[in-house]
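Repro:
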Amino acid sequence: MQNIIAPFNWRTELDVAEMDSIDNDIILLDNPLITPTFDRPFRVDVTTAIICLKGTIKGNIDLKMYNSQAPCIVVVMPDQILEYEHFSEDFSGFFLVMSKQFSDSLGIYNLPLHLSVRENPHIPLTDEEAEAMMVYYNMLKRTISIKENPHRKEIVRHLTLAFFYGLGYYIHTQNDEKKQTRKELIVEEFMDAIQKHYKTERSVNFYANKLFLTAKYLSKVVQENSGKTATNWIDDYVILEAKALLNSSKLTIQQISDELNFPSQSFFGKYFKRKVGMSPKEYRKQ
């Protein structure tokens, strides 16, 4: 997916009451107002941590629905597909946005928490934990504001890394408390397999073979534990990717069809219209 997703410009897409930044590497946003752009799925090209202190956030990250109640933190990683549904009127919170280049310099993608955050981007916090997150945030904010400090960016880098190490502790604590059944693990492994192969494989048999299960048993477990059929999950991932490409790339519909491994643009168009109720061209124009 190199160089085909248009960068998402948080500076222009958010109505921001207050913003502190160092170039485009790290941006701190105080209580931003969400614009209509967020109503449709788009692929992000930055790491974003949303510290929710009051109210609720509802939305989808890579097809998983989250209804996050304060206090909590929601972390979205680069290349994930994001779609907001609702911010409550009493929402109060802060956004920490980092460019991929800045995140790479921190090495956070090599930390164990990277995989955990991708799997569980919503992290409930106690009042004390939320207060600790805000201590980091305010230290970052203060450091960024002192523009005459020649070591400002290096200090911010270390503070940001400390922020994510602290976040890793909260995730570790939650994972220790969470015990999954065998069937829940099967569903999780199925979802992981879809994320890796949905662009080329749309057959339940393929995923069943990957998990060393029969297609019938996999379908039964997925339906019972997720409320949706295995086929529906596969289709949903394909359609979500198609929508994101239509929204956040300059690819032609033929190129999107090729990217998703459809035999022809016509076949892709019929598939998309059957699932969405309109053609890819109509969806892109709306």
